[in-house]
Structures are given as C-alpha cells and as structure tokens.
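Duplicate of earlier report; Sulfur carrier protein FdhD input re-posted below.
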Amino acid sequence: MSKPRAWSRPVPRDAWSDGQARPGAREVPEETPVALVYDASTYAVMMATPADLEDFAIGFSLTEGVVDAPDQIRGLEIVDQPLGVEIRMWLAPDRAARLAERRRMMAGPTGCGLCGIDSLEQAVRRWPPVGGKETRLTADDILAAMAALDAAQPLGAATRAAHAASFWRGGLIASREDVGRHNALDKLIGAMARTKEEAANGAVLLTSRVSIEMVQKTARLGAPILVAVSAPTALAVRTAEEAGITLIAVAREDGFEVFTHSQRISA
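Output:
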C-alpha cells in the first residue's frame, strides 16, 4: 500500500480587509479522484477527501447495492496513483455476477449521490422501513448531539470546507469527514458496518442539507432518526415519511424543526 495522501494542506493567499491585502496562508482540504474498482473494472470515480478510504469503499458498496454485507467483499486494496487513488475490491462470485449485469464506466462530481443510476425508479428507490419504533430522544438530547458534532470536526475546523456525518447514541459513536456530504455519510456507514455497530436506536447527524440520497443512505444504515443543520428538500421529507425515519432539520443551538415521525421526540 502506498503512503497515505494528506487530508489538507496550506496554500498561500492574500486576505483583503479594510481595503488592504495581507499575505498569508490558509489550510484547505484535499480533493482527490478516488476510483472504486470491482474485480478489475472501474464502477465509479468520486472526488473525495483521501481519508478513511476503506470505510468509504465499504459504505459506498453498501449504499449503492453492490453488496449487502461487508463480508461479500473478499478483498480490498488501496493503491495510490499519480493522479489519484484506486480502491480495488474483489467480490464474492454471486455479487460479481450481479454487478456484471449493470457494469458501466462513470464519473461523479464532488459528493455525487446518484452514481450507478440508470432509471427514474432507481433514483427514488425505497428501502424497507427502519426499525427503532421504541427509540426516544428528548429535545436536550438533540441539542447535545449537535453540540458534540460541532466539536468532532478537525478537518472542518481547520479548513471550514468539509462536511461531517456522525452517529449518536448517548454520545458520539463514530464520526467521519469529507469534502462531499454524501461521501462523509458513506464513510460513516462503512465504519459502522466494519465494527458491526447497531444503528436501530440512535441518530445520524449531518452538517449538510438533507436531500433524498441522504435519507436513502440513512435508511440503508437502519437509523430511525436523522438530524441535520440545514433544511430538507420536499422529496427528502416524503422519503423519510415512507421510510419511518424521524427527520429533524435546521438544528441549531436554539432549537430545531421536526418534519416526520415526531413521536420519537419528547420535551
């Protein structure tokens, strides 16, 4: 395995204020082409932060439906290339045969959430309703969770240009960052799959807006509650309602808004 790439680096810049320019430097995140390769054939190329790439590979494979469980990936190798990173995976025979039916070459922009989609039905695909009907959180729990998320973003704090996704159950269980919001959530899902962490009684926390893909990925994880700092789209709200997910958005220091399945939240 090649030496890992840096997550961020300082770049020179002139800072203007009061009509004057002051030379200096700013820390900025790396954005690297990451190719996801299954059985020697590229499935997707994503622009991502080159960190936690094994988590990213497993989470992406799960949310894209390439595999149903991490053990269906028989081998995984991360190879540094001059222009980016290749994540080479080898699938169990039945999964390899299934993937061969829909294999294609594609590329996604930063945080692309619809790679591998070739029909309208796939774009709005539904996952089975999540469990966690008995899961309850208080308003104070939600505020404490988002405060913990704010403190668990070293890349975001250094650059102000990265997203985070975390899982909370009485405290932060896992947290991942990336320049792409979809990538951050895939990394979180991969990390939890690798450690076999149950998601049925906790909440996914996001620093981004809530689009349908973020709800779909949360449903794939099986988490009953999704909390984000920004607002959702209308399709995300409808999808969360159908998936049985409590969708909480515009979560700030002074409160939040509950859009679906509010029975899980108490005063």
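Residues 105-114 have pLDDT under 50 and may be disordered.

Merging into the original ticket.
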